[in-house]
Structure formats: C-alpha cells, structure tokens
Amino acid sequence: FLRKEDMKHAVSKLDDTKFRSHEGEVSYIRVKEDYRGGGGRSRSRSRSITPPRRSRASPRYSPVRGRSRSRSRS
Fold first, then answer.
1. At the top level of its lineage, which domain of life is listed (predicted)?
2. Strand, helix or coil for residue 57
C-alpha cells in the first residue's frame, strides 16, 4: 500500500470476512496489521525464488517413469 491509511482500511474491511470454497466449506479469515515494516518486501522476493526450485525437482514425473517401467516389464 502507498499509504498507511489505505492498509488500515483494507485490514478493517477484510478482518472476519466470510469465505466459501468451491466445495461449500465456509470459513472466516483473520487479518492483522504487520508491524515489521519493510519485512514484507524481502519475503516477496523469497517467494519468487521458490517456484523455480519446485519445478526443477519435478517430483511428479519420477513416479510416472517408475510406473511405465513396471508396465513394460510385464
């Protein structure tokens, strides 16, 4: 947010907001003001680094390869 007043307004509007999932589950969220200052900027940078690490590992493909090998043997 550019101004602290804008952030406070968003926090007050979203706090205790009711959300409904596509499965019909209903839950309420709690939104609090973060008093750490610029910590959010460093956290957003670390988040952008993590998705490439997940895609490099590609755990989804290794079980599929194992299954195809077992099928070719039998």
1. Eukaryota
2. helix
Mean pLDDT per segment of 10 residues, for the chain of length 74 residues? 87 87 87 66 46 50 50 53
Beta bridge partner(s), residue 19: 27
In SS3 terms, 14-54 reads as HCCEEEECCCCCEEEECCCCCCCCCHHHHHHHHHHHHHHHH
Asked if 15 contacts 37 with a C-beta cutoff of 8 angstroms, the reply is: no
CA distances to 7, 36, 48, 62, 74 from 42, in Å: 18, 11, 10, 33, 52
